[in-house]
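Lab notebook, bench 4. The sequencing result for the construct came back, and we need a structural model before the next group meeting so we can plan mutations. Quick request posted to the team channel:

Model the 3D structure of this chain.
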Amino acid sequence: MSELRYLAALLRGSLPHLVDEGELDEGEAQRLESELGRLLTGGPAAESTDADLQEVLRSSPAVVDWVAAVLAHPDGVPPEAAELAEDKAGPYEGLAGDASGVGAQRYTCPVAGDVHWFRLRLSATVPNCGTHHVPLELVTT
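Done. Here's the predicted structure in token form:
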């Protein structure tokens, strides 16, 4: 998967967070979800698709800032997942086996990998892929 396609799939999963944080309004998030879904499921990335993905990833200041934060992170994770990992870091040392240093779990669409989503809270319900309408699956590495 190209870096552009990865960023676009990651953005799809982060759109609800950007809305919750007030960085995007609901209508803009829905427009981006629809456009990204169309571009990511159109088959292998062609040059025109890459150009279209670049345009979407530059479409608003909030998205540009989000992309910059993902690219700046050494693990290429969205800012909300990076913040979760930072919140867990600190002087506290837990018991052996304590998962305090573990970041958010990553889920992806099992059909096409066109959505990546990070579970920031255990109480969060794993969403369905907006394109294929199947539950996202945990990525294990």
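Residues 3-20 form the longest helix (18 residues).
Will bring this to the meeting.
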